[in-house]
C-alpha cells in the first residue's frame, strides 16, 4: 500500500480538474476574420474581407497572421461577475478589447478579463491578431467561450494548492505537515462539489476559513529572504522571427499592465530597450500606458544593454555600444539610469565584462544561465552571490539565480523552497534574487503567480519574500555586507560550445561590420575636422543599432530557425554595404580625386607596410621621392607593397604602366616548398605542412603534420546547433583524398601555393600565401560545404611545451588549460577566441590567427581551429553553401610581451585602404609609443560637441606607461568613462599626453581639437 495519505490523492485529483469549477460557460463567441502575410494594425481592419470562422477550421499560411473579430453583449446572468473570454485560435494571439491592446492568449495566459464587475447589456469588441506559426501544420480554429470566472472558487483553489504544495516539500514528520493534513481532511469534509456558481462560492468561503489560520503562520527570525523580480525573458528571435517578436512584446506588456490594474503591489521588470522601441513605434497607445507605469514605479526598465547580447563573440567596442545605446534610451525615455546588467540566457560571460560594466556605470550583474547546463557540466559553478573580478582587476557584485523548472517559472511554495535549498553557496548569504514569470517567448506572470505571491510574503516553511526592483536586492546585500566569495576570470559556460562556430557567415558578417564601423568613425572624424564634412551621427546610430540587434544571443551564436538566419544574413550584408560606403565616402572626402595620385589609409595605431591591389588602370606607383615601387601581377590584379603611418595616410603617384626595374624576389614556391627570408615550409600531397622551419634560429616548429583537416561526426543528444559533444574525437571521418597542388604566384612580393581537394562531400580550395619579409603565413580558404552533422577542424601540432594556452577576448586575453587534469579543465575542451590564440614558452611562442573563426580547442601542443559545423536543428540547412575565410600563423623568438602576435592578428583583419586621389601630405592622426597599447576606437563624441573620443587598451597583461601622440592641435584632454562622461582633466605637453595602464586596462580619452567646442 502507498504510504501517501489518501487525502492527498483527493487534493491532487481536484487540483488537476479545477477549471470546470472556476469557470461557468455562458455562450460561445463567434468570430469572423481574414488572413494576411502583412503586418497590419487594428486601425487597418475596416474594409478587410472578413468571413466567418468555425471551430475545427484550419486557417493561415506559414509565417502568416489571422485577424479575428467579435462583438459580445453582456447577458443578465453575468451581472456583477468577473467576465472573461476563453479564446482559442489554435495559436498565440494579441488581444484588443474595445480597440486597446489588452492582453494575450499564449501558453501561460488562457483567458482575457473583459471586466471584473460586468453590467448587463454592456458591449465589448474583441479583436485578435493570431500567429499562424512556422511549421507545415496550419493552426486549427478552436471554440471560444464567454464565461463567468467564479472568483471565490478560484481563491479557494489557490489556498488549497498553496498548502498542498507546501506540505509536500516539508519534513513529512513535522508538526507543520501534520496540521496541514488535518486541515485538508476538514476541507474535504466541507467542500461540496455538487454545487455550482454562487452556492459553490459560499461553500468555498467556508473551506477558506478552515485554511486561513495555516496560511497565517509565519517564519522564525532565521528564515532567508527571496527578492522576487517579476520578469519575462523574451528572445528577440529564436524559434520565431523578429516580426513575431514585435507582437510578442505587445502581448507581454499588455498582459502585465492588466495585472497591475488588479494587483497594485505588482512590479514588473523588463529589459532590452530595443523591445520598448518596438512598442513605441508600432503600439503608441500601449507605449503611453507603459510610460505611465514606469513613472509610477510599476514597470522597472532595467538591464542596461540594447538587447541581451552574446558576450563571447561581439567585440569589446560592440559591448560598450550595447550599454551606451541601451542606457541612453532608458534615460531619455524614462529618466532612469540602469545599474544592473541582466543577461539571463547568454552562453557564457567574457572575462573582461566586469571592466566594461564598470566603465559604463553598471554596478551589478545577474544571470541564471550558469546553473542550466543540461547535464553537460563536470564541475558545477561554486557561488551564487560573489564579487566577479575581470582580467583587469575590476570587480562587480554578481548574483547567479537558478531557473527552477525552466519556463514557465511559476511562484508557489515548492519553487521558492527550491530556490533556497538548491543554492550552491551554503554559507555567507541569507538572501537571493529570484525571477518569476513565463519566458523565452515572453508572456510574463499570470494571476496565479500574483495570488501565490500575496500568500508567500512570510509563510511558515517557505523563505520570506520581498517584491520589487532587482536593485533592491543588491542594495540590501551591500547593507548586509558583501560575501567573501570572489571569482576571478571568465564565467565559462560548460555547454553550448557549438555556438562559437554555427552559422559561420553571420559571424563573419559581424566581424566585418565591427571593422567597418571603426573605419567609418575614424575617417568620419578626420573628414569633419579637416574638410568640415558633416559627421554621420544619425546614420551611424541607426546602423549600430542594427548590428547590436543581430548580436542577440540566439542570432549571432546561430541557434535560431532558418528564417531568422536568412534574414540576419540579408540585414548584415546590407549593413556592411552601408557602413563600408560611409567609410569609403569619408576617405574620398579626404582626397582631391586626382587620378594621377593614390592615397593609402591605415586605421591601426602603428605604421604599416602592406600589400594592396592597385585600382584598375594603375599599373605602378611611386613614392614622394619618385622611386617606383615593385609590383606583382596575380590573376589579373596588380599588387604593390605600400607604407602608411599610424592612424593616418600616405600618398603615392600613380603610374599607367609598371616602369621600375623588376625587384629581386625574396619568396620562392614549388609544389612542395614555400619560403621567404624568415620561414621555410614543406608541403605534402594533401596541402599539409610537414615542416615549419625558422630560418633565423634553425628551429623546427612542426611537431607533426600541420594544417591537417580533421572532420568528425557531430551528433549531439540535444540542442544540435548549440552543442559540441565532448566525445566527438571518437567519431572521425576519414579524409584521405590527395590534393591538386599548384604554384599560382612566385614573387617578387608574395608566393602562393594552391591546394584543391575533396573533404568528404565537400570541396576545399586553399591558397597558402607567404609575403616577402613577413613572419605570417596565411591560408586563404574557400570551402563548398555540403555536410550534415559534421564538424571540421584544422590541426597545428607544434613544438611548444606549456600547460596553458592564450586566447584573445575583448580588450585582452585569457589563459586556459591545454589539458584535462581537473574537471573544470576538462569542461573547457572547446573555447572561444577572437583574432588569435597562442602557445608560449618563456622565450618564444606560436600563434594561430583568423579573420572570422571563434571556436578553438587546444590539447597539449595541438591547436585545433574550428572551421565549420553542420547542425540540422533548429535550422535544417545550417551552414550549407560556400564559405570564404582566412586563417594563418606566426611565431616569434623572445618574450610574449615583445611578440608581434597582437599586431599580426589586427593586420590580418584590418586591411589598409587605397583610394584614387591625393591632395594631402602624409599624416598620422594618432600614435602610441608602446606597442602593447592599442587604439581600438576613434570617433566623435556622442554629444555632438566635435570632441574626439579615443578608446585604448593594454593588450598583453602588463603595466605600462606610454605617450599618446596626436597629429592635430589639441586644446584640452580628459579621461572619461566608457559612456564619454568626463572623469578628470589630463595634462598634455603640446600634442602628447602621458598615460599609465594597468594590465588589460581600457581607457577612454576625450580630446578637444582647437576651434571645436559645440557642446
What is the strand and helix layout of this fold?
Layout: H1 6-16, H2 19-22, E1 23-29, E2 31-36, E3 51-53, E4 65-73, E5 82-86, E6 93-97, E7 100-105, E8 111-115, E9 123-131, E10 144-149, H3 151-167, H4 175-190, H5 197-215, E11 225-231, H6 242-262, E12 268-270, H7 273-282, H8 284-295, E13 299-301, H9 316-334, E14 340-342, H10 353-359, E15 364-367, E16 385-389, E17 395-400, H11 413-421, E18 431-436, H12 447-455, E19 464-467, H13 470-480, E20 486-488, H14 504-531, H15 537-549, H16 562-589, E21 597-602, E22 608-613, E23 620-622, E24 631-634, E25 637-644, E26 648-655, E27 668-670, E28 673-675, E29 679-683, E30 689-694, E31 708-713, E32 732-733, E33 740-746, E34 750-759, E35 762-771, E36 776-785, E37 790-797, E38 804-809, E39 812-817, H17 823-827, E40 831-832, E41 836-841, E42 844-850, E43 855-859, E44 862-869, E45 881-893, H18 901-909, E46 913-916, E47 923-924, E48 926-928, E49 933-940, E50 948-954, E51 960-966, E52 970-976, E53 982-985, E54 988-989, E55 992-997, E56 1002-1009
Parallel strand pairs: 11-12, 11-18, 11-19, 12-13, 14-15, 15-17, 16-20
Antiparallel strand pairs: 1-10, 2-3, 2-4, 4-9, 5-8, 5-10, 6-7, 6-9, 16-17, 21-26, 21-46, 22-25, 23-26, 24-25, 26-47, 27-28, 28-29, 29-30, 31-32, 31-37, 33-34, 34-35, 35-36, 36-45, 37-44, 38-39, 38-41, 40-43, 41-42, 42-45, 43-44, 48-51, 49-50, 50-56, 51-55, 52-53, 52-56, 54-55
Helix pairs in contact: 1-3, 1-4, 3-4, 3-5, 3-12, 4-5, 6-7, 6-8, 7-8, 14-16, 15-16
Amino acid at each position: 500500500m502507498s504510504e501517501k495519505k489518501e487525502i492527498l490523492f483527493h487534493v491532487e485529483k481536484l487540483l488537476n480538474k479545477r477549471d470546470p469549477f472556476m469557470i461557468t460557460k455562458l455562450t460561445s463567441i463567434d468570430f469572423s476574420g481574414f488572413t494576411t502575410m502583412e503586418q497590419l494594425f487594428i486601425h487597418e481592419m475596416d474594409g478587410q474581407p472578413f468571413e466567418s470562422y468555425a471551430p475545427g477550421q484550419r486557417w493561415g499560411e506559414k509565417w502568416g497572421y489571422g485577424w479575428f473579430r467579435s462583438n459580445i453583449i453582456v447577458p443578465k446572468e453575468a451581472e456583477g461577475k468577473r467576465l472573461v473570454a476563453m479564446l482559442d485560435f489554435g495559436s498565440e494571439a494579441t488581444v484588443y478589447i474595445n480597440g486597446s491592446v489588452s492582453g494575450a492568449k499564449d501558453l501561460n495566459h488562457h483567458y482575457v478579463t473583459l471586466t471584473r464587475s460586468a453590467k448587463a447589456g454592456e458591449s465589448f469588441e474583441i479583436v485578435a491578431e493570431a500567429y499562424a506559426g512556422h511549421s507545415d501544420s496550419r493552426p486549427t480554429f478552436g471554440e471560444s467561450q464567454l464565461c463567468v470566472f467564479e472568483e471565490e472558487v478560484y481563491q479557494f483553489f489557490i489556498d488549497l494548492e498553496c498548502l498542498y504544495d507546501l506540505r509536500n516539500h516539508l519534513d513529512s514528520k513535522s508538526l507543520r505537515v501534520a496540521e496541514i493534513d488535518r486541515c485538508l481532511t476538514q476541507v474535504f469534509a466541507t467542500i461540496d462539489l455538487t454545487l455550482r456558481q454562487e452556492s459553490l462560492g459560499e461553500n468555498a468561503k467556508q473551506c477558506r476559513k478552515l485554511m486561513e489560520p495555516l496560511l497565517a503562520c509565519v517564519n522564525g527570525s532565521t528564515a532567508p529572504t527571496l527578492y522576487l523580480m517579476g520578469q519575462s525573458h523574451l528572445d528577440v528571435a529564436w524559434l520565431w522571427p523578429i516580426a513575431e517578436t514585435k507582437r510578442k512584446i505587445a502581448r507581454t506588456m499588455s498582459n502585465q499592465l492588466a495585472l497591475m490594474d488588479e494587483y497594485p503591489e505588482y512590479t514588473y521588470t523588463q529589459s532590452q530597450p530595443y523591445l520598448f522601441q518596438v512598442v513605441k513605434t508600432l503600439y503608441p497607445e500601449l507605449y503611453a500606458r507603459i510610460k505611465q507605469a514606469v513613472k509610477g514605479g510599476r514597470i522597472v526598465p532595467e538591464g542596461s544593454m540594447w538587447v541581451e547580447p552574446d558576450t563571447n563573440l561581439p567585440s569589446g567596442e560592440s559591448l560598450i555600444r550595447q550599454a551606451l545605446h541601451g542606457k541612453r534610451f532608458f534615460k531619455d525615455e524614462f529618466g532612469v539610469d540602469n545599474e544592473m546588467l541582466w543577461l539571463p540566457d547568454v552562453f557564457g560571460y567574457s572575462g573582461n565584462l566586469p571592466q566594461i560594466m564598470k566603465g559604463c556605470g553598471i554596478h551589478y550583474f545577474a544571470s541564471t544561465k550558469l546553473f542550466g547546463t543540461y547535464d553537460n557540466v563536470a564541475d558545477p559553478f561554486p557561488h551564487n552571490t560573489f564579487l566577479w573580478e575581470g582580467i583587469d582587476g575590476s570587480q562587480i557584485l554578481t548574483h547567479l539565480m537558478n531557473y527552477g523548472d525552466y519556463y514557465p517559472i511559476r511562484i508557489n511554495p515548492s519553487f521558492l523552497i527550491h530556490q533556497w535549498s538548491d543554492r550552491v553557496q551554503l554559507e555567507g548569504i541569507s538572501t537571493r534574487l529570484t525571477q518569476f514569470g513565463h519566458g523565452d517567448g515572453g508572456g510574463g506572470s499570470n494571476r496565479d503567480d500574483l495570488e501565490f505571491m500575496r500568500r508567500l510574503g512570510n509563510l511558515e516553511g517557505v523563505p520570506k519574500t520581498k517584491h520589487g526592483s532587482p536593485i533592491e536586492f543588491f542594495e540590501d546585500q551591500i547593507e548586509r555586507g558583501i560575501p567573501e566569495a570572489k571569482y576571478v576570470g571568465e564565467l565559462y559556460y560548460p555547454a553550448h560550445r557549438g555556438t562559437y562556430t554555427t552559422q559561420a557567415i553571420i559571424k563573419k558578417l559581424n566581424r566585418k561590420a565591427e571593422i567597418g564601423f571603426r573605419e567609418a568613425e575614424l575617417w568620419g572624424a578626420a573628414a569633419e575636422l579637416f574638410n568640415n564634412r558633416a559627421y554621420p551621427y544619425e546614420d551611424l546610430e541607426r546602423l549600430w543599432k542594427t548590428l547590436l540587434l543581430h548580436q542577440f544571443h540566439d542570432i549571432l551564436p546561430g541557434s535560431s530557425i532558418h528564417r531568422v538566419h536568412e534574414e540576419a544574413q540579408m540585414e548584415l550584408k546590407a549593413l556592411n554595404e552601408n557602413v563600408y560606403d560611409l567609410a569609403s565616402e569619408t576617405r574620398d572626402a579626404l582626397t582631391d580625386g586626382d587620378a594621377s595620385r593614390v592615397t593609402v589609409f591605415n586605421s591601426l595605431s602603428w605604421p604599416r607596410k602592406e600589400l594592396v591591389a592597385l585600382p584598375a588602370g594603375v599599373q605602378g606607383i611611386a613614392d614622394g621621392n619618385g622611386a617606383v615601387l615593385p609590383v606583382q601581377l596575380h590573376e589579373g590584379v596588380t599588387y604593390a607593397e605600400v607604407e602608411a603611418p599610424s592612424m593616418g595616410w600616405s600618398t603615392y603617384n600613380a603610374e599607367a604602366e609598371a616602369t621600375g626595374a623588376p625587384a629581386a624576389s625574396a619568396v620562392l614556391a614549388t609544389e612542395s616548398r614555400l619560403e621567404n627570408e624568415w620561414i621555410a615550409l614543406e608541403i605534402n600531397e594533401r596541402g599539409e605542412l610537414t615542416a615549419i622551419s625558422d630560418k633565423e634560429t634553425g628551429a623546427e616548429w612542426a611537431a607533426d603534420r600541420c594544417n591537417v583537416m580533421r572532420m568528425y561526426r557531430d551528433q549531439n543528444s540535444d540542442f544540435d546547433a548549440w552543442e559540441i559533444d565532448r566525445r566527438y574525437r571518437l567519431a572521425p571521418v576519414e579524409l584521405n583524398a590527395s590534393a591538386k597542388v599548384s604554384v599560382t604566384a612566385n614573387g617578387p612580393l608574395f608566393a602562393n601555393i594552391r591546394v584543391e581537394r575533396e573533404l568528404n562531400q565537400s570541396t576545399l580550395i586553399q591558397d597558402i600565401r607567404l609575403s616577402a619579409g613577413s613572419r605570417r603565413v596565411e591560408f586563404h580558404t574557400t570551402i563548398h560545404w555540403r555536410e550534415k552533422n559534421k564538424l571540421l577542424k584544422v590541426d597545428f601540432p607544434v613544438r611548444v611545451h606549456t600547460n596553458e594556452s592564450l586566447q584573445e577576448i575583448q580588450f585582452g586575453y585569457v589563459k586556459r588549460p591545454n589539458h584535462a587534469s581537473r574537471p573544470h579543465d576538462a569542461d573547457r575542451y572547446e573555447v572561444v577566441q577572437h583574432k588569435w590564440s597562442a602557445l608560449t614558452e618563456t622565450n618564444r611562442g606560436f600563434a594561430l590567427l583568423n579573420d572570422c573563426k571563434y571556436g578553438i580547442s587546444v590539447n597539449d601542443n595541438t591547436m585545433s581551429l574550428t572551421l565549420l559545423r553542420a547542425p540540422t536543428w533548429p535550422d535544417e540547412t545550417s551552414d550549407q553553401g560556400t564559405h570564404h575565410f582566412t586563417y594563418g600563423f606566426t611565431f616569434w623568438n623572445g618574450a610574449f610581451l615583445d611578440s608581434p602576435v597582437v599586431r599580426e592578428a589586427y593586420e590580418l583583419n584590418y586591411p589598409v585602404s587605397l583610394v584614387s586621389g591625393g591632395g594631402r601630405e602624409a599624416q598620422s592622426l594618432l600614435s602610441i609609443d608602446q606597442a602593447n597599447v592599442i587604439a581600438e576606437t576613434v570617433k566623435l563624441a556622442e554629444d555632438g560637441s566635435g570632441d574626439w573620443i579615443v578608446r585604448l587598451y593594454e593588450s598583453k597583461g602588463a603595466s605600462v606607461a606610454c605617450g599618446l601622440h596626436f597629429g592635430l592641435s589639441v586644446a584640452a584632454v580628459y579621461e572619461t568613462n566608457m559612456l564619454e562622461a568626463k572623469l578628470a582633466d589630463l595634462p598634455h605637453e603640446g600634442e602628447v599626453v602621458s598615460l599609465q595602464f594597468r594590465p588589460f586596462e581600457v581607457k577612454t580619452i576625450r580630446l578637444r581639437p582647437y576651434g571645436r567646442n559645440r557642446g
